[in-house]
Write a structure and sequence with these properties.
The protein has one domain (about 1-85). Helices cover about 0% and strands about 80% of the residues. It has strands at about 1-10, 10-20, 25-35, 35-40, 40-50, 55-60, 65-75, 80-85. It has a 5-stranded antiparallel sheet with strand order 1-8-7-6-5, with no helix packed on it. The protein is globular, with a radius of gyration of 13 Å. It starts with a strand and ends with a strand.
């Protein structure tokens, strides 16, 4: 497996919905990156972290071929691709 590290803004289509246990949730559905649309098939991990006063939501997603680490800055509403892990 090869990991490439990035710091690129990306466009993400996501679903936001309410759950009984956790309140509100966000699920990335697909991402537009370098001229390609990547559709996610599974969420591997989701966790919030802090950068100063801002909350950053980290998502590990897969399209079945590669794994992607995305971050959502919940204050600025900016998606950033942090890493791609591919075979």
């Amino acid at each position: 497996m090869q990991e490439e590290v990035f710091d690129e803004r990306v466009e993400v289509a996501a679903a936001f919905y309410k759950t009984d246990i956790e309140g509100r949730r966000c699920l990335p559905l697909k991402m537009h990156w370098r001229g390609r649309d990547i559709t996610f098939t599974e969420l591997g991990l989701r966790h919030p972290t802090r950068k100063g006063a801002r909350t950053i939501h980290v998502f590990d997603m897969t399209d079945g071929t590669a794994d992607y680490r995305l971050e959502l800055d919940s204050e600025r509403l900016i998606w950033t691709l942090r890493a791609v892990l591919s075979a």
